[in-house]
Amino acid sequence: MFVRVLAVTFALGLSDIASAQADTARVRLVPRVRVPDSARSRDVDTAQVLELPAIVGGMDVAKRRRMIDSLDAQRRIWELRRPRAYAIRVLSMSCIQIQARSRTGAVLRDQLLVQDTSIVRRQPVPIPAAYEQRCSLAWRVDDLFADLGRALDDTTAAVGVSYDPAYGFPGAYWISHGGADDGHEVLVESFAAARR
Fold first, then answer.
1. Which of these, 148, 144, 171, lies nearest to 47 by C-alpha position?
2. What residues have CB less than 8 Å from 45, skipping those under 6 apart?
3. How many CA atoms are closer than 13 Å to the CA of 146, on its beta-carbon side?
4. What are the residues facing 34 on neighbouring strands?
5. CA nearest 147: which of 94, 87, 85, 191?
6. Would you give per-residue pLDDT tens digits along the chain (196 residues)?
7. Within 13 A of 29's CA, how many CA atoms are on the CB side?
8. 3-state secondary structure string, the chain?
9. How many CB atoms within 10 Å of residue 3?
10. Radius of gyration (Cα) for the chain, nearest Å?
11. How many CB atoms lie within 10 A of CB 189?
């Protein structure tokens, strides 16, 4: 019994450390990637998704309040800096999808072109090999904020997030309710302001 209590205490301590660090961390996984000329976009930024730790229960009230305040502040940054049009590809890192390769050998996944708040085009573009088996989500930046906001409103959930330093949107985050299959990780695999 003592060993079980010690293991749970250790896991909770690690989750608090990981969550506290995740709120400000942004790690580069791949150097800058070019968006195809057809998207007429500038360089795309890529990020590594945060590790999903073993979590038992949610977060304390003070931490949740700080994260909600941070989300509100980041949303204001997005509203001030948001480009009128942008290309984005969002991945669910908790999902595996096998997809056939194109004739050129590349795995293609849809990248969305969003103008104002509407998806105006979906175009298949190659995805980096590290993400070939991850499921894509047809999400705009507004969808990322909404999903993260719902998770922070849920007092049973634990959350870790990393925001994009230039635009303020959630670039990578995880949500857990404590069960092995009861959470998800989301990664903005590529994002670029687009010229229309």
1. 171
2. 32, 164, 166, 171, 190, 191, 192
3. 5
4. none
5. 94
6. 443 444 444 444 444 444 444 443 343 333 333 444 444 444 444 444 444 444 445 678 899 999 999 999 999 999 999 999 999 999 998 877 766 666 667 788 889 999 998 999 999 888 888 888 888 899 999 999 999 999 999 988 899 999 999 999 999 999 987 665 567 899 999 999 987 5
7. 16
8. CHHHHHHHHHHHHHHHHHHHHHCCCCCCCCCCECCCHHHCECCECCCCCCCCCCCCCCCCHHHHHHHHHHHHHHHHHHHHHCCCEEEEEEEEEEEECCCCCCCCCCCEEEEEEEECCEEEEEEEEECCHHHCCEEEECCCHHHHHHHHHHHHHCCCCEEEEEECCCCCCEEEEEEECCCCCCEEEEEEEEEEEECC
9. 7
10. 18
11. 28
- Print the domain residue range for 36: 2-193
| Residue 76 token pair | 């204001």
Q: Which residue has the tokens 């903005």?
A: 188
Domain count, the chain: 1
- Residue 61: both structure tokens together: 């009230």
- Residue 138 corresponds to which tokens in the numbers above? 């047809």
Structure token digits, residue 124: 């298949």
Residue where the block lists tokens 């800058």: 32
